[in-house]
Amino acid sequence: MRMEENIVDYLLDLLKTKGADIQYGNEDVTQLEHALQCAELAEKHKLPGPTIAAALLHDVGHLIYEDGDPIHEGKDGHHENLGADFLKKYFGEDVILPIRAHVDIMIVYQKHRNFR
Ligand SMILES: [Fe+2]
Predict the structure, then answer these.
(1) In 3D, which of 18, 27, 30, 100 has the Cα closest to residue 64?
(2) What are the residue ranges of helices labelled H in the chain?
(3) CA–centroid distance, residue 16 to ligand 1 (Å)
(4) Which of 11, 13, 94, 107 has the fewest CB atoms within 10 Å, i.e. is most exposed?
(5) Model confidence over 62-104: pLDDT tens digits?
(6) Which residues place a Cβ less than 5 A from the ion ligand 1?
């Protein structure tokens, strides 16, 4: 990973380049589209700025593996922690916590939904 002189430029470039090339899970959208959809939804619901930033960046961990995302080999690389650990140099806990927690939150949500 290169040293980041301007983190905003770096992240936008990362999303526009790598994010536009990588599919989001089994969905018919790229990581970039997924990030923008999440941020747009957060904005539409008038969530605070840090939450909108977290929505935009929550999966950035998928884009910063040096040797490729192990998820493509069926392995959990804990992208949420990789992304949060990388971003914590630049953002406060109001951005980092939702990023670090989003996988656990999704698991709890899906289990709850399956019990309805
Ligand atoms: Fe994720």
Answers:
(1) 18
(2) 7-21, 31-44, 49-57, 79-87, 93-114
(3) 18
(4) 107
(5) 999 988 888 888 898 999 999 999 999 999 999 999 999 999 9
(6) 59
Residue 4's pLDDT is: 59
CATH no. for residue 90?
1.10.3210.10
How many structural domains are present in the chain?
Answer: 1
Number of residues assigned to the chain: 116
Output the six-digit token pair for 116.
């309805």
CA 64–ligand 1 middle distance (angstroms): 13
pTM summary value: 0.90
Ligand 1 centroid–CA 61 distance in Å is 8
Cα(2) to centroid of ligand 1, in Å?
A: 22
Per-residue pLDDT of 14-68, as tens digits, reads 999 999 999 998 899 999 999 999 999 999 999 999 999 999 999 999 999 988 8
Output the CA 3–ligand 1 centroid distance in Å: 24
